[in-house]
Design brief:
Low-confidence stretches: none
Largest sheet: 10 strands, mixed
Strand content: 25-35%
Radius of gyration: 24 Å
Structural class: alpha/beta
Bound molecules: NADP nicotinamide-adenine-dinucleotide phosphate
Amino acid sequence: MPDPFRVGLLGHGTVGSAFRRLLEQRAEAVAGVAGRRPEISGVLTRSQGSFEDILARSDLVVELIGGVEPARQYVLGAMRAGRHVVTANKQLLSQHGDELWEAAVENEVQLRFEAAVAGVVPIVRVLAETLAGSYVERLHGIVNGTTNYVLSEMAGTGASYAEAVAHAQELGYAEADPTEDVTGLDAAAKMAILARLAFDAAVDLSDVRYEGIEHITVDDLEYARELGLQLKLIGTAERIDGGLSVRVHPAFLYGGHPLASVNGPFNAVTVESPDITEITMSGPGAGGPQTASAVLGDVVSAMIPPPSLPHRLERIPIVSDVVSAFYLHLEVADRPGVLAQVAELLGLQDVSVKSVVQKGLGDEARLVMVLHPVLESRFFAAVRLIGRLDAIRSAPRSIRVIEEEFV
Ligand SMILES: NC(=O)c1ccc[n+]([C@@H]2O[C@H](COP(=O)([O-])OP(=O)(O)OC[C@H]3O[C@@H](n4cnc5c(N)ncnc54)[C@H](OP(=O)(O)O)[C@@H]3O)[C@@H](O)[C@H]2O)c1
């Protein structure tokens, strides 16, 4: 009988307790695949267990505490003691990636984190292993289930932003304090982790610019539907002229984009590469049992040699000004010449109009336009000038549009 494979478990909350149950249920099946039977050798919470004792009795440490400290000290301590580590901790990985990668390389241990991004969707494995030899050009991701649920609810039922957030909280899709989700911060942390893997580059949360969904209104969604567009909170990581851009913002998608049909609390990631054209994976982005399944998959991978080791990463410059298409919503005085004035200011910055919807509302009119791709700095310069026109009745609203369709 081979020795059991001893798993030290740090954290026993939603994911930790689901992971322990799953590991106990699946231990025999894992033994059949990996040759050793995994067992929990100790559990650490705020009220039980000692890290040093658990470390001494473990072949691998699973960190499911969350947050930066003390998780960082425990993960580094485990790797420095020669233990493989599996974690679901996006905050830690996105803020201390260099230190963690370095510790994994120096100590020749595995650092696995499938559950940190997009829950059970196996995007980390696909980038780190399946596409390890491919040149990845771009990722687009819906990596936050809360905001995807809120936007789907607003588009589907006409609910306001506040109503949709309240409904998400009732259903357990949003935390009591949803700030990290709705501001885009959670998605930004996940995109930093994906960019690190996709581009073999030392990307941190501080390299990612992000916007949230708090300012989205129902009428933006209604006009967009007339133009054949769906609104999502999209994370993008792409190569631009030898540099990288990693960002999160609301964006409209045309119906042929693989992410346009991802609704509710689901997550999905699209990978584009000249070698593979495009692949998209989708599935539940959170939940105790779902996340636990991704954690167990990492444990099994770590048990089966040969180990895939982290390696040292390049520093690639971050590009701040990128090319985007835009949706522009203007409330204007309904009088002759306004559209021409707007078009002239756009034209001065090389912004050209792809489509326009105009609605008369008594003395006022709404102009809703989709604009062709242009450098963002040029677009925002034009919008600043448009905002100063006499005929403008409220601050212009703009949302990016992703133009690709893969059908
Ligand atoms: N929940 C999800 O659906 C989901 C999805 C994807 C990824 N994740 C990630 O999974 C990780 C765990 O999330 P969760 O939802 O399971 O969290 P949780 O329910 O809040 O559980 C956290 C656990 O960590 C323990 N803990 C907290 N501070 C500690 C400390 N200082 N020392 C020792 N133990 C401590 C807690 O102990 P007590 O029991 O004593 O309070 C609890 O057992 C996080 O990194 C999260 O981002 C979660």
